[in-house]
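hey all, quick one before standup. I had two proteins in the batch that finished overnight and I want to keep them in one place so we stop losing track of which output belongs to which input. First protein below, input sequence then structure tokens straight from the run.
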Amino acid sequence: MTKFDSLPGYYKFLFLYLEPISELGPLITSILWGPSWFYNELTPPTGPPPTDLDVRAVIAIWQLDICFLLIFVITSLVFRAIRDNLSHDLAAQERLTGTLLFSLGVADVTHMFVTFLNLPADIKYTPLQWNTTTHGNLTFVVLLHTSRISWFLGIGRKRYYFGQPQQEIKKVQ
């Protein structure tokens, strides 16, 4: 395996492999079982998937699937491009990695907020009643976000840019 100084160990496994692979789930389920199945799984289902899903809902589900596909492509390719092209400049490697992790962190917060806000009241505070998709949207995203914060805090890794004293740039007179 190629060394990735700004994403070592746990962070490398989580952000370079597990997160991208998990982003493919919604698209794969929509392809295999149709958008009505994924639509029905957005909250713990109360019955079988609807057979006559409104065309607007179908389009929205496919657009959501495409957003997950985009996150898969970005996390898969951008992290690898950073690793492969900036192995000689660890501060730049960390700065770009941090930029991507921060962007994903913003998405984490909005994703968790919107999901939790719109969960049915009777299951909102009972995670044992949540389905796999709800756990993916909340439990897994909490893990991802906590790991992103830990990365920025330098927990379990050496820092090369974030948390380091900034050097002054001297102007040429």
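OK second protein, same deal, sequence then tokens:
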Amino acid sequence: MCLYLLVPFFVKLSAFRLNPLLFYAITATAASLIYAAQVKRPIFADALFDAMATTRQNVIQQISKSAPNVKDQIRALDDGISRIEKSVKDFVDQMERDYERRGGYLGMFMGAAGVLMSQAFTGNYVFYGILSVMLYDTMSAVGGVMLGHVRIPFTNSTVEGALIGAVSLAVPLLILNGFNLGILAVPATAIISEAYGIEDNFTIPVTTSLVSMALGLRVL
């Protein structure tokens, strides 16, 4: 998704009667609708399965009344169908939980909202916010899983993951802006936002964009 968020920096949006702010507003709106639909999906699924069970029981009761000689066979069939329904429902629930762990509808929505706010507050400095999410957030997670041992106080983040993420972000920042130790304030901000922010996909782009603007980094 981060690559998609960089589209305004590589595509002439005016050709489509768009500007970066409108582009990110549309993206955030779409992400919010997807998130809302996914949050409500379990409710819809439960309602569907409940309606199916109620309908099946009503049908079985009518058949049992009209043909009592096959009552036992009908009950056995009902038990079999009930087990199939339960298996399908458990499978759907498991798939939803797995997707939440792997992708995260909330993360997608908050990331889009964070980039929208960054664009509104800082203009094209949002580039550095997107870069921070793409590099720091990703590499700190990978580094934390592979090498992480020492926890940052009061968080689930690791020192090793934070350092790997910070280096991954600092290198392109230095390439784009030249050697300047002040640039290290951007990865430092990303570390704090990821470790202590309520939702890092939102806080990282907003805070790092603001710091980049304060530092006067190169605007692309």
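Flagging for whoever picks this up: Residues 56 and 81 are 9 Å apart (CA to CA). Confidence is low (pLDDT under 50) at residues 97-103.
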